[in-house]
Amino acid sequence: MKKFILLAFMVVLSVAMAACGKDSDQAGKADADFPKKPITLIVPWSAGGGTDTGARLLQPYLEDELGVTVNVVNKTGGGGWVGWNELANAKSDGYTIGLANSPHIITGYMNPTLKRDKSLDDFVGLGMHVIDPDIIAIRKDENRFSTIEELVAYAKDNKLTVTATGEGTDEHLVILSFNKKYGTQLEAVHFDGAAESRAAVLGGHVDLLVANAGEVLSLYKDKEIKVLGVAASKRSEFMEDVPTFEESGFEIYQESSRGLIAPKGLDPEVLAKLQSALEKAVTNEEHIQKMADLGYGVNYENGEDYMDILKKDEEAVIDLKDLLGW
Protein backbone atom coordinates (compact mmCIF):
# COMPACT_ATOMS: atom_id res chain seq x y z
CA MET A 1 0.00 0.00 0.00
CA LYS A 2 2.82 2.35 0.94
CA LYS A 3 4.55 1.59 -2.35
CA PHE A 4 1.35 2.38 -4.22
CA ILE A 5 0.94 5.72 -2.44
CA LEU A 6 4.58 6.61 -3.14
CA LEU A 7 4.18 5.68 -6.80
CA ALA A 8 1.01 7.76 -7.10
CA PHE A 9 2.76 10.73 -5.49
CA MET A 10 5.67 10.45 -7.93
CA VAL A 11 3.26 10.37 -10.87
CA VAL A 12 1.41 13.48 -9.64
CA LEU A 13 4.71 15.29 -9.01
CA SER A 14 5.96 14.43 -12.51
CA VAL A 15 2.76 15.70 -14.09
CA ALA A 16 2.94 18.90 -12.05
CA MET A 17 6.56 19.50 -13.00
CA ALA A 18 5.78 18.90 -16.65
CA ALA A 19 2.89 21.34 -16.47
CA CYS A 20 5.12 23.94 -14.80
CA GLY A 21 7.70 23.45 -17.51
CA LYS A 22 5.03 23.88 -20.15
CA ASP A 23 3.68 27.01 -18.44
CA SER A 24 7.22 28.35 -18.22
CA ASP A 25 7.78 27.71 -21.90
CA GLN A 26 4.50 29.44 -22.70
CA ALA A 27 5.42 32.40 -20.49
CA GLY A 28 8.76 32.70 -22.27
CA LYS A 29 7.01 32.53 -25.62
CA ALA A 30 4.49 35.13 -24.46
CA ASP A 31 7.33 37.47 -23.51
CA ALA A 32 9.03 36.85 -26.85
CA ASP A 33 5.78 37.66 -28.64
CA PHE A 34 5.12 40.85 -26.66
CA PRO A 35 3.15 42.88 -27.51
CA LYS A 36 0.20 40.96 -28.91
CA LYS A 37 -2.62 43.39 -28.11
CA PRO A 38 -3.22 47.15 -27.71
CA ILE A 39 -1.33 49.04 -25.01
CA THR A 40 -2.94 51.66 -22.77
CA LEU A 41 -0.97 54.86 -22.18
CA ILE A 42 -2.36 56.71 -19.15
CA VAL A 43 -2.08 60.50 -19.25
CA PRO A 44 -2.91 61.82 -15.75
CA TRP A 45 -4.06 65.22 -17.03
CA SER A 46 -6.90 66.57 -19.13
CA ALA A 47 -6.88 66.60 -22.92
CA GLY A 48 -5.24 69.60 -24.54
CA GLY A 49 -2.49 70.19 -21.98
CA GLY A 50 1.23 69.85 -22.60
CA THR A 51 1.51 66.28 -21.30
CA ASP A 52 -1.48 65.13 -23.32
CA THR A 53 -0.31 66.88 -26.49
CA GLY A 54 3.16 65.39 -26.18
CA ALA A 55 1.72 61.92 -25.61
CA ARG A 56 -0.47 62.14 -28.69
CA LEU A 57 2.42 63.38 -30.83
CA LEU A 58 4.51 60.43 -29.65
CA GLN A 59 1.69 57.89 -30.01
CA PRO A 60 1.97 57.03 -33.74
CA TYR A 61 5.76 56.61 -33.56
CA LEU A 62 5.44 54.35 -30.54
CA GLU A 63 2.79 52.33 -32.38
CA ASP A 64 5.11 51.93 -35.37
CA GLU A 65 7.89 50.60 -33.15
CA LEU A 66 5.68 48.26 -31.09
CA GLY A 67 3.47 47.08 -33.94
CA VAL A 68 0.24 47.48 -31.95
CA THR A 69 -2.26 50.23 -31.16
CA VAL A 70 -1.37 52.55 -28.26
CA ASN A 71 -4.51 54.01 -26.71
CA VAL A 72 -4.01 57.35 -24.93
CA VAL A 73 -6.42 57.52 -21.98
CA ASN A 74 -6.84 60.64 -19.82
CA LYS A 75 -7.26 59.98 -16.09
CA THR A 76 -7.57 63.35 -14.38
CA GLY A 77 -7.68 64.49 -10.78
CA GLY A 78 -5.65 64.44 -7.62
CA GLY A 79 -2.81 66.48 -9.10
CA GLY A 80 -2.09 63.59 -11.46
CA TRP A 81 -2.41 60.88 -8.82
CA VAL A 82 -5.73 59.49 -10.02
CA GLY A 83 -3.84 58.32 -13.09
CA TRP A 84 -0.65 57.30 -11.27
CA ASN A 85 -2.56 55.26 -8.71
CA GLU A 86 -4.33 53.39 -11.49
CA LEU A 87 -1.00 52.79 -13.20
CA ALA A 88 0.70 51.56 -10.02
CA ASN A 89 -2.17 49.13 -9.40
CA ALA A 90 -2.31 47.88 -12.99
CA LYS A 91 -1.13 44.41 -13.95
CA SER A 92 2.61 44.47 -14.55
CA ASP A 93 2.51 42.91 -18.00
CA GLY A 94 3.56 45.83 -20.18
CA TYR A 95 0.08 46.54 -21.50
CA THR A 96 -0.49 49.55 -19.21
CA ILE A 97 2.09 52.34 -19.19
CA GLY A 98 1.84 56.01 -18.32
CA LEU A 99 3.23 59.52 -18.49
CA ALA A 100 5.03 60.90 -15.45
CA ASN A 101 5.51 64.58 -14.67
CA SER A 102 8.11 65.84 -12.26
CA PRO A 103 7.88 67.36 -9.72
CA HIS A 104 4.13 66.60 -9.71
CA ILE A 105 4.44 62.86 -9.18
CA ILE A 106 6.92 63.38 -6.32
CA THR A 107 5.19 66.17 -4.41
CA GLY A 108 1.94 64.24 -4.75
CA TYR A 109 3.17 61.49 -2.44
CA MET A 110 5.49 63.58 -0.28
CA ASN A 111 2.63 65.82 0.85
CA PRO A 112 1.84 64.28 4.27
CA THR A 113 -1.76 65.49 4.28
CA LEU A 114 -2.60 63.31 1.26
CA LYS A 115 -1.42 60.08 2.95
CA ARG A 116 -0.58 58.28 -0.29
CA ASP A 117 0.97 54.84 -0.12
CA LYS A 118 2.65 54.90 -3.54
CA SER A 119 5.98 56.44 -4.55
CA LEU A 120 8.65 56.24 -7.25
CA ASP A 121 9.50 52.80 -5.89
CA ASP A 122 6.22 51.49 -7.35
CA PHE A 123 7.30 52.26 -10.91
CA VAL A 124 10.02 51.46 -13.41
CA GLY A 125 11.32 53.99 -15.93
CA LEU A 126 10.89 53.54 -19.66
CA GLY A 127 12.57 56.79 -20.68
CA MET A 128 12.42 60.59 -20.58
CA HIS A 129 10.56 62.46 -23.29
CA VAL A 130 10.56 66.21 -22.65
CA ILE A 131 11.86 68.98 -20.40
CA ASP A 132 9.67 72.09 -20.47
CA PRO A 133 10.45 75.29 -18.47
CA ASP A 134 7.77 77.29 -16.67
CA ILE A 135 6.68 80.77 -17.74
CA ILE A 136 4.52 83.57 -16.35
CA ALA A 137 2.11 85.24 -18.79
CA ILE A 138 -0.63 87.86 -18.74
CA ARG A 139 -3.62 88.61 -20.97
CA LYS A 140 -2.97 90.90 -23.90
CA ASP A 141 -5.34 93.50 -22.42
CA GLU A 142 -3.70 93.53 -18.96
CA ASN A 143 -3.03 97.19 -18.04
CA ARG A 144 -1.74 96.98 -14.45
CA PHE A 145 1.72 95.72 -15.42
CA SER A 146 3.54 94.73 -18.60
CA THR A 147 6.89 93.41 -17.37
CA ILE A 148 7.91 90.93 -14.69
CA GLU A 149 9.50 93.78 -12.72
CA GLU A 150 6.23 95.73 -12.74
CA LEU A 151 4.27 92.61 -11.84
CA VAL A 152 6.46 91.84 -8.81
CA ALA A 153 6.26 95.45 -7.62
CA TYR A 154 2.46 95.41 -7.94
CA ALA A 155 2.10 92.01 -6.28
CA LYS A 156 4.01 93.15 -3.19
CA ASP A 157 1.06 95.39 -2.32
CA ASN A 158 -1.81 93.61 -4.09
CA LYS A 159 -3.04 90.02 -4.19
CA LEU A 160 -3.05 88.32 -7.57
CA THR A 161 -4.55 84.95 -8.46
CA VAL A 162 -2.34 82.55 -10.42
CA THR A 163 -3.00 79.25 -12.18
CA ALA A 164 -1.45 75.98 -11.00
CA THR A 165 -2.26 72.29 -11.37
CA GLY A 166 -2.03 71.08 -7.79
CA GLU A 167 -0.16 71.58 -4.55
CA GLY A 168 3.55 71.09 -5.03
CA THR A 169 3.44 71.07 -8.83
CA ASP A 170 6.04 73.02 -10.78
CA GLU A 171 3.62 75.94 -11.29
CA HIS A 172 2.87 76.01 -7.57
CA LEU A 173 6.58 76.03 -6.74
CA VAL A 174 7.07 79.07 -9.00
CA ILE A 175 4.32 80.88 -7.11
CA LEU A 176 5.68 79.95 -3.68
CA SER A 177 9.23 80.86 -4.67
CA PHE A 178 8.22 84.38 -5.76
CA ASN A 179 6.26 84.85 -2.54
CA LYS A 180 9.11 83.66 -0.34
CA LYS A 181 12.01 85.36 -2.12
CA TYR A 182 10.41 88.61 -3.24
CA GLY A 183 7.45 89.21 -0.92
CA THR A 184 4.72 88.93 -3.54
CA GLN A 185 1.13 88.04 -2.71
CA LEU A 186 0.44 85.44 -5.37
CA GLU A 187 -2.47 83.10 -4.63
CA ALA A 188 -2.62 79.75 -6.40
CA VAL A 189 -5.84 78.61 -8.08
CA HIS A 190 -5.56 74.94 -8.98
CA PHE A 191 -6.91 73.30 -12.14
CA ASP A 192 -6.76 69.75 -13.54
CA GLY A 193 -4.58 70.77 -16.47
CA ALA A 194 -3.15 73.50 -18.67
CA ALA A 195 -6.24 73.72 -20.91
CA GLU A 196 -8.44 74.78 -17.99
CA SER A 197 -5.73 77.14 -16.73
CA ARG A 198 -5.46 78.90 -20.07
CA ALA A 199 -9.23 79.26 -20.36
CA ALA A 200 -9.47 80.72 -16.85
CA VAL A 201 -6.88 83.40 -17.59
CA LEU A 202 -8.19 84.26 -21.06
CA GLY A 203 -11.69 84.50 -19.58
CA GLY A 204 -10.51 86.98 -16.96
CA HIS A 205 -11.23 84.67 -14.02
CA VAL A 206 -7.58 84.40 -12.91
CA ASP A 207 -4.96 87.16 -13.09
CA LEU A 208 -1.80 85.32 -14.12
CA LEU A 209 -0.97 82.22 -16.12
CA VAL A 210 1.86 80.00 -14.91
CA ALA A 211 2.40 77.07 -17.26
CA ASN A 212 5.07 75.27 -19.23
CA ALA A 213 6.39 77.10 -22.28
CA GLY A 214 5.21 74.41 -24.68
CA GLU A 215 1.67 74.65 -23.36
CA VAL A 216 1.26 78.31 -24.33
CA LEU A 217 3.29 78.60 -27.52
CA SER A 218 0.27 78.95 -29.81
CA LEU A 219 -1.22 81.67 -27.60
CA TYR A 220 2.16 83.39 -27.50
CA LYS A 221 2.55 83.27 -31.30
CA ASP A 222 -1.02 84.53 -31.81
CA LYS A 223 -0.36 87.34 -29.28
CA GLU A 224 -3.31 86.25 -27.16
CA ILE A 225 -1.02 86.44 -24.14
CA LYS A 226 2.21 88.23 -23.25
CA VAL A 227 4.88 86.03 -21.70
CA LEU A 228 6.84 88.02 -19.10
CA GLY A 229 9.58 85.58 -18.22
CA VAL A 230 10.97 82.05 -18.37
CA ALA A 231 12.05 80.11 -15.26
CA ALA A 232 15.23 78.73 -16.80
CA SER A 233 18.94 79.51 -16.91
CA LYS A 234 18.70 80.41 -20.60
CA ARG A 235 16.03 81.71 -22.94
CA SER A 236 13.63 79.31 -24.60
CA GLU A 237 14.51 78.54 -28.22
CA PHE A 238 10.80 78.95 -28.94
CA MET A 239 10.47 82.36 -27.23
CA GLU A 240 13.78 84.04 -27.92
CA ASP A 241 12.48 87.56 -27.20
CA VAL A 242 11.30 86.59 -23.70
CA PRO A 243 13.88 87.15 -20.93
CA THR A 244 14.59 84.63 -18.23
CA PHE A 245 13.57 85.59 -14.72
CA GLU A 246 17.28 85.67 -13.92
CA GLU A 247 17.87 88.33 -16.58
CA SER A 248 15.21 90.45 -14.87
CA GLY A 249 16.84 90.04 -11.47
CA PHE A 250 14.76 87.18 -10.06
CA GLU A 251 16.46 83.88 -9.25
CA ILE A 252 13.58 81.54 -10.01
CA TYR A 253 14.24 78.31 -11.89
CA GLN A 254 11.59 75.67 -12.49
CA GLU A 255 10.77 73.18 -15.20
CA SER A 256 8.69 70.08 -15.76
CA SER A 257 10.21 66.85 -17.02
CA ARG A 258 7.99 64.26 -18.66
CA GLY A 259 8.69 60.64 -19.36
CA LEU A 260 7.13 57.21 -19.56
CA ILE A 261 6.89 54.77 -16.67
CA ALA A 262 5.28 51.41 -15.97
CA PRO A 263 4.27 49.43 -12.88
CA LYS A 264 7.23 47.76 -11.19
CA GLY A 265 7.74 44.04 -11.71
CA LEU A 266 7.84 43.98 -15.51
CA ASP A 267 9.42 40.95 -17.09
CA PRO A 268 12.95 42.04 -18.15
CA GLU A 269 12.29 41.10 -21.78
CA VAL A 270 9.07 43.10 -21.88
CA LEU A 271 10.79 46.06 -20.20
CA ALA A 272 13.62 45.95 -22.71
CA LYS A 273 11.17 45.93 -25.64
CA LEU A 274 9.24 48.91 -24.28
CA GLN A 275 12.41 50.87 -23.58
CA SER A 276 13.86 50.14 -27.01
CA ALA A 277 10.62 51.11 -28.76
CA LEU A 278 10.39 54.33 -26.77
CA GLU A 279 13.97 55.33 -27.56
CA LYS A 280 13.40 54.85 -31.30
CA ALA A 281 10.06 56.69 -31.17
CA VAL A 282 11.32 59.67 -29.16
CA THR A 283 14.50 60.10 -31.24
CA ASN A 284 12.68 59.80 -34.56
CA GLU A 285 13.63 62.97 -36.48
CA GLU A 286 10.09 63.55 -37.72
CA HIS A 287 8.77 63.29 -34.17
CA ILE A 288 11.40 65.71 -32.90
CA GLN A 289 10.45 68.24 -35.57
CA LYS A 290 6.74 67.96 -34.86
CA MET A 291 7.41 68.47 -31.17
CA ALA A 292 9.56 71.50 -31.96
CA ASP A 293 6.83 72.97 -34.15
CA LEU A 294 4.61 73.08 -31.05
CA GLY A 295 7.34 74.34 -28.74
CA TYR A 296 8.33 71.11 -27.01
CA GLY A 297 12.02 70.39 -26.58
CA VAL A 298 12.69 66.64 -26.79
CA ASN A 299 15.26 65.45 -24.26
CA TYR A 300 15.59 61.65 -24.33
CA GLU A 301 17.17 59.72 -21.44
CA ASN A 302 17.03 55.94 -21.05
CA GLY A 303 14.85 54.32 -18.42
CA GLU A 304 17.52 53.89 -15.76
CA ASP A 305 18.87 57.41 -16.16
CA TYR A 306 15.34 58.81 -16.13
CA MET A 307 14.64 57.17 -12.77
CA ASP A 308 17.92 58.61 -11.45
CA ILE A 309 16.75 62.07 -12.56
CA LEU A 310 13.42 61.56 -10.77
CA LYS A 311 15.28 60.51 -7.62
CA LYS A 312 17.31 63.73 -7.78
CA ASP A 313 14.07 65.67 -8.20
CA GLU A 314 12.82 63.91 -5.08
CA GLU A 315 15.86 65.13 -3.16
CA ALA A 316 15.21 68.68 -4.39
CA VAL A 317 11.61 68.53 -3.17
CA ILE A 318 12.83 67.35 0.23
CA ASP A 319 14.92 70.54 0.38
CA LEU A 320 11.74 72.59 -0.30
CA LYS A 321 9.62 71.02 2.43
CA ASP A 322 9.70 74.18 4.54
CA LEU A 323 8.47 76.22 1.55
CA LEU A 324 5.54 73.84 1.17
CA GLY A 325 4.78 73.72 4.87
CA TRP A 326 5.47 69.96 5.05
Fold and architecture overview:
This protein is α/β, with parallel strands linked by helices and 326 residues long. It has two domains: 33-132 and 255-324, Bordetella uptake gene, domain 1 (D-Maltodextrin-Binding Protein, domain 2, 3-Layer(aba) Sandwich); 133-230, Periplasmic binding protein-like II (D-Maltodextrin-Binding Protein, domain 2), CATH 3.40.190. The chain is 44% helix and 21% strand. It has twelve helices and ten strands. The strands form two sheets. Strands 1, 2, 3, 4, 7, 8, 9 and 10 form an eight-stranded mixed sheet that branches. Strands 5-6 form a two-stranded parallel sheet. Helix 2 (50-66) crosses helix 9 (268-282). The relative contact order is 0.18.
Q: Which descriptors would you attach to this protein?
A:
two-stranded parallel sheet, disordered N terminus, D-Maltodextrin-Binding Protein, domain 2, 326 residues, alpha/beta, 10 strands, 12 helices, globular, single chain, eight-stranded mixed beta sheet
Task: Give a brief rundown of this model.
By secondary structure, the chain is an alpha/beta fold.
What are the SSEs and their pairings?
Elements: H1 2-33, E1 39-43, H2 50-66, E2 70-74, H3 81-88, E3 96-102, H4 104-110, E4 123-139, H5 148-155, E5 160-164, H6 170-182, E6 186-190, H7 194-202, E7 209-212, H8 217-221, E8 225-230, E9 255-263, H9 268-282, H10 285-293, E10 298-302, H11 303-319, H12 321-324
Parallel strand pairs: 1-2, 1-3, 5-6
Antiparallel strand pairs: 3-9, 4-7, 4-8, 4-9, 4-10
Helix pairs in contact: 2-9
Organism: Sporosarcina quadrami
Signal peptide: 1-18
Family: Belongs to the UPF0065 (bug) family.
